[in-house]
Amino acid sequence: MPKQIDPIIDHFLKHDHDNDKEILAAIIMLNDNCHPVELSLLCSLTDLDHTVHQLDKLKQITGRFCKQTLRRLIDHPKVKHIHHDYDVHINLNTATAAIQSKAANNIYGLTGKGVTVAVIDTGIYPHYELI
Prior knowledge:
Layout: H1 7-14, E1 23-30, H2 39-42, E2 50-55, E3 60-66, H3 67-74, E4 79-84, H4 92-98, H5 101-108
Antiparallel strand pairs: 1-3, 1-4, 2-3
């Protein structure tokens, strides 16, 4: 089964082939049966590449990598997937309406007062593996 490629990574690698020095923040996910390894053992790194986190228990490596390195890693047998890494921001103005919190307050009198811990999921990223 061929690997699925994150659409943002795919666009980054196909766009502007003349500029291989461009970098992108990425999360490199290793195969489940792979032992944690240093990224430099998977492929040679350039001076532009910068590993930020080595998450051994999650079998993930995060950082900023150039196109050349990402191209090599996508085809590496120990790499399960590469995701674009980006900042996530909450939008309570959207989430509050989406979960109909005002209706919960008006109909059931639920306000959250006295709640010590609450977990609210503010949405689902439309990830291509879930669509």
